[in-house]
Amino acid sequence: MYYSGIDLHSDNSYITTIDDNGAIVKQQRLDNIDDCVISYFHSLPGTHQAVVESTTGWYWLNDLLNDHGIDLVLAHAKYLKAISYAKVKTDKVDSQP
Question: What is the pTM for the complete model shown?
């Protein structure tokens, strides 16, 4: 199983994917284009689960991933300690599950 954290922006996303052992297997910034997002997940064969902060604009991502059998969990921004208390805020850090 792979677990991906998605730092979603209006025109691009930064995705970090870890394996069952917590090791980072892939990180990439990509345009918010359906084919780009699906290609990212298909490049890692197996089952995926993803998480994204529940800000505006996540609906299309939920529909896209669910259509491809990828479970998307919405995380409430208030409870994302790693992001809200981070001393270093970058998309790479924010995307880590």
Answer: 0.79
